[in-house]
Amino acid sequence: MRHNGRVNEARRSDEGTPYVTLTRDEWAALADATPLPLTEEDIAKVRGLGDPVDLAEVDRIYRPLSRLLDLYSGATGQLHRATSEFLGERASRTPFIIGVAGSVAVGKSTTARLLRELMARWPSSPHVELVTTDGFLHPNAVLEERGLMARKGFPESYDRRALREFVLQVKSGAEEVRAPVYSHQVYDIVPDEQVVVRQPDILIVEGLNVLQTTAGREPGSQQLHISDFFDVSIYVDARQADIRRWYIDRFLALRSTAFARDDSYFRSYSTLTDDQATAVAAQIWDAVNAPNLATNIAPTRGRATIILTKGARHTIESVRLRKL
Q: Residue 159: which CATH number?
C-alpha cells in the first residue's frame, strides 16, 4: 500500500507538467516484453569509472529504455514513409538522432554506450554510431589564446558552428561525415585523427550542453541548434551533492589509472595523497563543474524527452517521459 501511495504521489506531481513519471519498479516491469542481449562482459567494456552499473541495472532500466527508443525510431520511420507517399517522392530516410545530456560524472557516457550496444542488437537498427561533443572542443592552443582553459566544458569552449554543421550533415543524409577526436588522456584534440560516420540508422550524440539553445549564440549565426535535429533527447539527472561526491571518488580512482600514465596531462595528480586529491577535486568541482552545471546544463533538463533520475547509489530511481 505504501508503494501504491508513492506511485499515486508521483502521478499527482505530474499534473500540470508535460511529463509522466514512472518509479523504478514500474519502469522495470516493462522489461519483461524485451530481450536482454548483453552479457556482464559486454557491460564491463562500456562501464565508466565510478559508475557501478551492472547486469541487473541494465535489465531493469536500460533494456526497456532501448525498446522504447526502438519504438520511437520505428514510428519515425512510419511517418517518413507516409510523408514520402503523400508527397509522391522516394527520399531515403535520414538517421534517427538521440541526444544524451547531463553533468560531468553523472554517468551520461555510460548511458550512451549502453544504449549503443543495446540498440545495435535490435533488428530494426543494426548500424548505431556514437559521437561525443568533446571532439568539438576548441584545441588547447585556441582556449589558451582566448583565456578559456579554466572554462573547458562551458558552451564557449566548443566550436559550436562545427558541431552544428556535423549534426546537420548527418541528419541530411550525407554519405560520410567526419568529427574530430578528443583525448581525455592528453586533455586536447588529437591532430589528424577523426571519427567517420557513414549513414547510420541511429546516431547517439552525447555531451554536457547538447540541449542548450540561445546561451552564447555566435553573432549572426543561424537560429538552429544541434538539439533541433534530435528525434529524442535524454537527460541523466541526480542531486548535485551526489554528483560532486561521484566526481571526487572518480578523481581519487584515476590517480592509479589514467593519471599515472606517462602521457597524461594530469600526471602530477597521480602522487597526491587521499586528502590532497580530495581537496583538489573539490576545488575543481566547486570552481568549474558546479557553476557550469547550475548555469548551463541543469537549465536544459526540461527540454529533454526522457529524464533518468539517479539516486545516491548511482542507480536509476525514476524515469520521466514527455507526454505525447
A: 3.40.50.300
Using alpha carbons only, how large is the chain's radius of gyration in Å?
20
Per-residue pLDDT reduced to its tens digit, 270-290: 999 999 999 999 999 999 999
Give backbone dihedrals phi and psi of 194, rounded to 5 degrees, phi first. Answer: -140, 155
Total domains, the chain: 1
What pLDDT does residue 190 have?
96
* Nine-digit cell string for 246: 561521484
Q: What is the span of the domain harbouring residue 135?
A: 2-322
- CA–CA gap between residue 219 and residue 29 (Å, rounded): 49
Q: pLDDT by residue (tens digit) across 218-244? A: 555 556 889 999 999 999 999 999 999
In the predicted model, residues of the chain with pLDDT beneath 70 are 1-13, 32-38, 46-51, 214-223
Q: Could you tell me the CA-to-CA distances from 301 to 63, 76, 312 in Å, in that order?
A: 22, 23, 19
